[in-house]
Amino acid sequence: MKKCISCAKDIPDTAFHCVFCGAKQGAPQTAGPAQRTIMGYAAADLQKLLPNQPGGPAGGAPQGGYVPTSGADQRTMMAGVGGAPLPQNPADQRTMMAGVGGAPLPQNPADQRTMMAGVGGAPLPQNPNDQRTMMAGVGGQPMQPQMMGGMPPMTPMQPMHPQMGQPQMGQPQMGGYPQQPMMQQPMMQQPMMQQPQGQRPQYLASQSAARDMAPTEPWAGSLRGMMIFFGIVLIATVALPMKISPMTFYWQVLTTGAPIQEKLWPLVLAAGGFLALLFGLLPVPTAARGIVAAIVGLLPFIVMVIAGSPGGGSSGLPVGGWQGYLVLAGIILAPTGLLIRSQYRSSALGRLLPLIGCGAIIAVSLIPVGGGGIPIIDQLKNLGGPIAALVPAIWALVLPAAAVLGLLLSLLPSSTSGGTGLFAWLIMSWYFGVILLVVVVAPILGGGSLDRFIKSPAGLALILDYLAWPVLAAYGLATTFGKSLEA
Fold it and tell me: Within a domain: residue 177?
């Protein structure tokens, strides 16, 4: 064994590259008599296990340390019936497994039988014509070999060298039994060793780095948890009362003569929550969860453009005009690209989607509207006044700032994620923060009360819906796109 020149871990002496870090080693060392193998054996240790060889270095002394022994009670596999000398009649020649390996033979010759002496393992029949070995025909006639896998028939093996301590052909063996030629089976081709099922293959350092840049289902657990949580929130929006006194529910709009646009929201929320909860609880593939999460997250934004906000407003867009559509596109595409960039660092999609999504948000902050100035400059000039108006104004600047930083970090080298996952969450939670500040925080800072929120459980759940939609859409799209980017 030797030490790696880079990571100092033990590797074989003949290794050209380290199996742990992949670093190239120097010239391979030549194995000497004092060097051990990876299992701890030296050349001298292996020599002791070899059989005695004639013509050793010390005047013909045998080499090695293994000495085969032969006992008086050891018999060949081709001994005759009952341990007697092999009869001349071929019909009465039987194999005999008694005494193999040094076990003593039975004293009664009539009891010396093998398990396979008789037909089907039964005791040896008295009729010699019906006595057979495992591979002999009836009456000792040869039987055509029918072996599994096309194995060739047995071939006789040449007698062993007399210097090895074994009797030659024709010489009587100890105990009066003549030596019979041993049958040797040609060596069959051993099947190739296969890797156990369920065991992951070994990778080099370069392959491990590739898997680190393209992991397998990195959001499998987190996506499932978010689908269960937000699925419950979406169902609670429809199931909980909008007002406690008098008790009214959001789904009651389906029984009134309200326009069809208002009836879409209870159906979309209930169906989306049920699908998210169902696919979060069932043992389905992660790719299927990603598709369902993307549908549940994107559908409310489409309904928002068509039917307005779920609270009854004329428009659910954060800003008016074409800027609102760009902001919605940026809230969906920018976090999706930043999430992909944080896990699949070498993917081009992790740079393209942030460029589109973050670019759309930045364009809204830089393009003048109606002959006025640059919107972000106007927002900076309007900072000030009471705290009830200052907090929402500061939060409005978080979106373009997160878009700029996320776009810059997504262009960094693939060796680092650059914290793009954090900026993805800032963009996903921005719309939720706007609703929370406008509906809850600003009225409280202005001297309002919390009674109306306590008496409207469905209203609190509706505020969380603005966080559920972009999160499910971004994580669902990132999971769906990431399946094609896995290593």
Answer: no
